[in-house]
Design brief:
By secondary structure, the protein is an alpha/beta fold. It contains 6 helices and 5 strands. The chain has one domain: Protein-Tyrosine Phosphatase, Chain A, CATH 3.90.190. The N and C termini lie far apart (35 Å).
């Protein structure tokens, strides 16, 4: 089993300052954005702004869009139906694009640890990882690579 974990984080209710502090404290080397839509109403969390902020903190950024929850899953999540969202996401993971990007995520986790010794962190919106598809992706990395999973939390705004 790897000594360093893979992290997950959600930015719901957070400021960019608290978000970057949490990543820095965990010594994250690469943030993997697993949102289908990398846009946000929260300042600093849309794709370009986020990538620029991460760069200023010495953290890499990759967006794996096909590992995001499909629209119908996002609608279920917004309605408070996390279990329905997870069922929809599980079906989505069997699509060729998602399989390809899951393989890419696995390779990123392996190479990031080998090259920099710094762990990766999966990003999505939801603060509670139990209500987010990123838990399923982290579990898959655990299965494939034996990597321990830890959830990071930002101080709320």
């Amino acid at each position: 089993m790897s000594a360093k974990p893979v992290f997950t984080i959600g930015y719901e209710q957070s400021t960019t300052g608290a978000f970057f502090d949490a990543l820095a404290a965990a010594k994250v080397g690469l943030l993997v954005d697993v949102r289908a839509v990398a846009a946000s109403r929260r300042p600093g969390f849309s794709k370009r702004q986020l990538a620029a902020g991460l760069d200023q903190h010495g953290i890499g950024y990759v967006h794996l869009q096909k590992l995001g929850t499909p629209k119908e899953g996002r609608l279920a999540a917004r309605s408070g139906h996390a279990e329905t969202m997870l069922r929809i996401f599980e079906r989505h993971l069997a699509t060729p694009d998602a399989v390809r990007e899951l393989d890419e995520l696995t390779a990123l986790a392996k190479t990031s640890m080998a090259r920099s010794g710094r762990p990766i962190c999966l990003l999505c919106y939801e603060r509670d990882p139990a209500h987010c598809h990123r838990q399923r992706l982290a579990a898959e990395l655990h299965t494939r690579l034996g990597i321990k999973v830890e959830d990071l939390f930002c101080a709320p705004a």
